[in-house]
Design goal:
The complex is a heterotrimer of chains A (361), B (297) and C (256). Chain A is mostly helical and 361 residues long. Chain A is built from 15 helices and 2 strands. A two-stranded antiparallel ribbon of chain A has the order 1-2. In chain A, α2 (36-61) crosses α12 (258-269), α3 (69-84) packs across α11 (220-246) and α12 (258-269) runs parallel beside α14. Chain A is globular and about 75 Å long. By secondary structure, chain B is mainly alpha-helical. Chain B has a single domain, classed as ABC transporter involved in vitamin B12 uptake, BtuC, CATH 1.10.3470. In chain B, a hairpin with a 2-residue loop joins β2 and β3. By secondary structure, chain C is α/β, with parallel strands linked by helices. In chain C, α3 packs across α5 (119-138), α3 (95-103) runs parallel beside α6 and α5 (119-138) crosses α6 (154-167). Chain C is 39% helix and 24% strand. In chain C, the strands form 2 sheets. In chain C, strands 6-7-8-3-9-10 form a 6-stranded mixed sheet, with helices on both faces. A 4-stranded antiparallel sheet of chain C has the order 2-1-4-5, with helices on one face. Classes of the chains: A mainly alpha (361), B mainly alpha (297), C alpha/beta (256). The interface between B and C is small, with 3 and 7 residues.
């Protein structure tokens, strides 16, 4: 009876939090709150959430070490860029080398281009996965890093399709932040549903023990490729959204080190925790913005603090990744999901400890 | 294409190949024992290049003194990476160790960018290596000619260590069965340290020869050679040092031949290694000289 | 009629011959055992049967169908399930999840309809859960269904591993040292348990075991392996009195 009432309360809390969240984003969106910079950073965090959660599906839930997120995002971003820029603007953008005559005729609605980008990413993931995931899946890290580099080489060289190093400008911007947050909610929901299905359990079995999973009749290769391709699909979607957020794409944006942002996020949130990943996505994205002052020369009381100059932020970033993996391997939530039970028991423990302390005094 | 150009490119291919080989040995030995892709290896190679710049340009030391200092400093860095980033995670899930490896690699790259800036530095000129020798119309730098020789000598030394010395025997035992070797009383930490000493030392030699050919030092210069050399090690058969050298040679030749015969595809030079990786995994996942690895059940 | 047949199996690792000329014929519905000193090649034989290793030569037949060279998952789908010498549960997952995972091989609808919770997938999931809970109930593990597998006591973990193998709907169960680490009374319970599940699920059981009491009591037939070769086979009494078996276990000059 008490349990039921508790459950009822928790449900209520969830609804309240959801309403607050919706109200907050809507207030931002209608410009009652914040400025363009805040809107941009939060939209970026929403995109990072999609990519990180999908990376956690592959790395945290299936136990594969994929580092191809930047590459898959590039595929999604360029698909959106190539197909959604208005036809009349194309000639001005492709002014060095003409756009491929077939592509120059095709304009797709944003949603279609976005999904197409995701599907293309997934297709490429399958093509990489077939040779690599068959036997030695530990080579996946090298293959995916290599893919991220090759895709950049192709983007730079295939000028009639991608406009080379100049990139593509004039990608239509979205009228509302809800595009990013809507797709985020949808993507995270789909991935959670997948993880809690029979297929998700099979992924976890592979992560826990490949040999036992195979002995239970799970086709390792098929499920690994499936997880990897689904992860790539959502990374492609994230890339497509990024293209429309920034309004411009060029090969340099998708340097493979971008993937390390997502790696830090899933390690911080907990490999195998979706709620942890969502929280960490916002912490890291906002944190990286806040930490920008580390890259500026800092003068305190007339002294020039010598530590603060270009590149310091990334040193802290990578040191943080090392500290996490060496000392706090479970990140925020490990393999658990955030729940009201967890929060209340955490508070109870704290008050209990305080009481004990008080008693001792 | 003239005969001269072909010969010149052939020599180039062999010398690039032997540079890849030197770095690949480090990858293959570490993977053989720890089943770990040491992502930081390429960045240790990069740091060695910077050490050489500082030693010769900033401290004005002669090249032969600098070489010794650089090799020692690089070895210390390699062992430091092992002790701080890999050793504490010996019993952790594999995923954690791989992330740690990526983390160290990224940390070294960012530290280099922060400390030395992203602006390329010129590699000091070692006259004895960069001077040209001519055979008729064909001229090579000394570095191009001596690199393969040095690589083969060092391969011989490494093989001598692994086959004829006590620590070498311990290394081979650990690569076959890490846990059993540990149970048999082999000091596994010493074995691993030795592996990193050898790998980092070879990377330092590679960096010095590399700099004499491509005299530009940058924080991210180790990334591509690093990825490629791991693939060279896979091509040769991971865990096998002769295979690593063979893989390095093949990869170097393949790249130079692409540039020579299909100059329009020069931009795709860096892609060859990954195509080779895919082909190897499809056709012969154990590599050219590798043995089948079976997991224990 | 033999349900499982090993025909002249040879398994070689580099220069080491782990199994040589191994011929085994397990009869349907029986409990048969594979015994032998440490390092005799017993687990290797299991790995050959379940497809973890492909034999150097010779063939494995299940219900007269050749299964040599098939991957372990395909062999499990055909009806052979196993347990492992050093318990390989999905440690961080719950007891129920462990069982549900073993049901995954029967899943018919694809990942999209499962993700989107289509009605037929919901039905599939519901059936799977009911079946799993029934199995857990039958084996007395239902009250533990939400516990994390690694938190279970050792004996229960062994039981769960057998339950997991049963959940695949296997008809041939390969048990690799099910009584390892158990005390005599637990071993007795296990003996009854094996008998019961054999009858209830109409299984054939082929097991590796070191506890001779258990082996002698429940096995219809025993195979004795030494240095990769079969040195004896027959009923408990036949095997017990075979001089080669005694020699293999007690050793003549060298320690076995």
């Amino acid at each position: 009876m008490i349990d039921q009432r508790k459950k009822h309360n928790f449900k209520l809390y969830n609804i309240i939090i959801f309403i607050v969240f919706v109200a907050f984003i809507t207030a931002l969106d209608l410009k009652f709150l914040g400025d363009d910079y805040v809107r941009r950073v939060l939209s970026l965090a929403a995109i990072y959430t999609i990519v990180s959660v999908s990376m956690n599906l592959v790395n945290g839930f299936t136990g594969l070490f994929s580092l191809g997120q930047a590459g898959f995002m590039a595929v999604g971003a360029y698909t959106v860029a190539i197909f959604t820029v208005p036809l009349e603007k194309r000639a001005a953008i492709f002014y060095v080398v003409d756009q491929n005559p077939v592509l120059a005729q095709i304009h797709l609605p944003f949603v279609v281009a976005l999904i197409l980008g995701g599907l293309l990413s997934a297709l490429i993931a399958i093509l990489i996965g077939i040779p690599v995931l068959r036997l030695r899946s530990d080579y996946l890290a090298i293959a995916t890093l290599g893919f991220s580099e090759i895709i950049r080489i192709i983007l730079t060289n295939a000028k009639s399709i991608t406009n080379g190093a100049l990139g593509i400008k004039g990608i239509p911007e979205m009228p509302t932040m809800w595009v990013f947050f809507g797709v985020m909610i949808l993507s995270v929901t789909l991935i959670v549903l997948l993880i809690n299905s029979s297929y998700g359990r099979a992924f976890k079995a592979i992560r826990e023990d490949e040999i036992a999973a195979e002995a239970m009749g799970i086709n390792l290769f098929k499920h690994k490729v499936m997880s990897f391709a689904i992860g790539a699909f959502f990374a492609g979607i994230g890339g497509g959204l990024l293209a429309s957020l920034l309004g411009t794409v060029d090969p340099k944006q998708f340097y493979f080190t971008m993937t390390y942002n997502f790696l830090l996020i899933i390690v911080l949130g907990g490999m195998g925790s979706i709620s942890g990943t969502v929280i960490a996505s916002f912490i890291v994205t906002i944190g990286l913005e806040v930490l920008r002052f580390f890259d500026e020369p800092l003068t305190l009381l007339g002294f020039n603090i010598p530590l603060f100059r270009a590149g310091f932020r990334m040193v802290i970033f990578s040191a943080l990744l090392m500290i996490l993996v060496l000392f706090f391997r479970n990140g925020l939530l490990g393999q658990k999901e955030l729940s009201w039970d967890m929060i209340t028991s955490w508070f109870n423990k704290k008050t209990l400890r305080r009481k004990e302390k008080g008693g001792a005094l | 294409m003239t005969f001269e150009i072909f010969m010149q490119q052939l020599a180039n291919g062999i010398s690039i190949g032997s540079l890849y080989a030197l770095i690949a040995i480090g990858y293959t030995m570490v993977y053989g024992i720890l089943r770990l892709i040491n992502f930081a290896h390429g960045d240790i190679f990069m740091m060695a290049s910077y050490f050489m710049v500082f030693s010769m340009v900033n401290f004005g030391l002669p090249w032969y003194v600098s070489m010794v200092i650089v090799i020692i400093a690089t070895i210390l860095l390699g062992v430091l990476v092992e002790k701080t980033a890999y050793k504490p995670l010996r019993n952790a899930p594999r995923m954690s160790i791989m992330i740690s490896a990526i983390g160290v690699s990224f940390l070294l790259e960012n530290l280099a960018t922060y400390l030395f800036t992203g602006v390329p530095k010129g590699f000091p000129d070692i006259a004895i290596l960069t001077q040209a020798i001519s055979f008729g119309n064909i001229s090579f730098s000394v570095a191009t000619l001596v690199t393969p020789i040095i690589t083969l000598i060092l391969l011989y030394v490494v093989q001598f260590i692994t086959n004829k010395t006590k620590i070498g025997m311990a290394m081979r035992a650990s690569s076959i069965d890490f846990e059993t070797a540990r149970l048999m009383g082999i000091n596994i930490n010493r074995v691993i340290s030795t592996t990193f000493v050898i790998g980092s030392g070879l990377a330092a030699v590679g960096a010095i020869l590399w700099g004499s050919k491509y005299p530009s030092v940058m924080p991210l210069m180790g990334v591509m050679p690093g990825l490629k050399c791991f693939i060279a090690a896979v091509l040769g058969g991971i865990g096998n040092t002769t295979g690593a050298v063979l893989g390095g040679f093949i990869l170097g030749m393949a790249e130079i031949m692409l540039v020579t015969f299909l100059p329009s595809l020069t931009g795709y030079r860096d892609a060859i290694a990954f195509i080779i990786l895919i082909v190897v995994l499809l056709v012969k996942p154990t590599g050219l000289l590798g043995e089948k690895v079976t997991d224990k059940v | 009629m033999g349900i499982l047949k090993l025909d002249n199996i040879k398994m070689q690792f580099g220069g080491v011959v782990a199994l040589n000329n191994l011929n085994i014929d397990v009869e349907k519905g029986k409990i048969e055992a594979l015994i032998g000193p440490n390092g005799a090649g017993k687990t290797t034989a299991f790995n050959v049967i379940t497809g973890v290793y492909t034999p150097t030569s010779g063939d494995v037949y299940y219900n007269d169908k050749k299964i040599t060279g098939l991957t372990p998952d395909k062999i499990t789908k055909m009806g052979i399930a196993r347990t492992f010498q050093n318990i390989r549960l999905f440690k961080n997952l719950t007891v129920l999840d462990n069982i549900l995972i073993a049901n995954h091989l029967h899943v018919k609808s694809n990942f999209l309809s499962h993700t989107l919770r289509m009605p037929w997938s919901r039905q599939e999931e519901k059936n799977m859960r009911e079946k799993s809970e029934m199995l857990l109930d039958r084996l007395g593990l239902l009250s533990l269904k939400n516990e994390i597998a690694s938190s279970l006591p050792y004996g229960e973990q062994r039981k769960l591993e057998i339950a997991r193998a049963l959940a695949t709907d296997a008809k041939l169960l390969l048990l690799d040292e099910p009584a390892a680490g158990m005390n005599p009374s637990e071993t007795m319970q296990l003996s009854n348990f094996i008998h019961d599940i054999r009858d209830e699920f109409q299984l054939t059981i082929f097991m590796i075991e070191h506890h001779m009491d258990l082996v002698m009591e429940i096995s219809d037939k025993i195979y004795v392996l030494d240095f990769g070769e079969l040195i004896a086979q027959g009923t408990a009494d036949e095997v017990k009195n075979d001089p080669r078996v005694i020699e293999a276990y007690l050793g003549v000059e060298e320690d076995a």
